[in-house]
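A.,

Following up on our hallway conversation. Structure tokens first:
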């Protein structure tokens, strides 16, 4: 799942970067700080989720990992939206299958 978020605030009115899109001075540092804050929230708040990683790569944030439930996944995505608003975010957070098998495994 990919959540590209296109937000350009007042700082975006400056000169265009080499890639052709406007970018605020110091944006990568700000993004890295926000990613680190997201990691802290994931570990410390109601989730205590350490199986999810958020990394700033090539101008976007990648949020990846495995969580135990769909509810946990929704919480991770909500926190990412809150912390990373205005940044391009690509998410790949999957739910671990914890249901009982519906049939016996057959060994040959």
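Then the amino acids I'd put at each of the 108 positions:
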């Amino acid at each position: 799942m990919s959540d590209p978020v296109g937000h350009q605030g007042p700082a975006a009115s400056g000169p265009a970067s080499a890639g052709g899109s406007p970018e605020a001075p110091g944006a990568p540092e700000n993004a890295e700080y926000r990613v680190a804050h997201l990691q802290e929230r994931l570990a410390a708040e109601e989730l205590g989720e350490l199986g999810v990683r958020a990394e700033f790569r090539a101008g976007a944030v990648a949020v990846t990992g495995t969580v135990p439930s769909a509810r946990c996944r929704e919480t991770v995505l909500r926190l990412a939206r809150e912390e990373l608003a205005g940044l391009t975010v690509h998410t790949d957070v999957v739910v671990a299958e914890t249901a009982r098998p519906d049939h016996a495994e057959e060994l040959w």
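The helical segments are 27-44, 70-83. Curious whether your intuition agrees with the design.

B.
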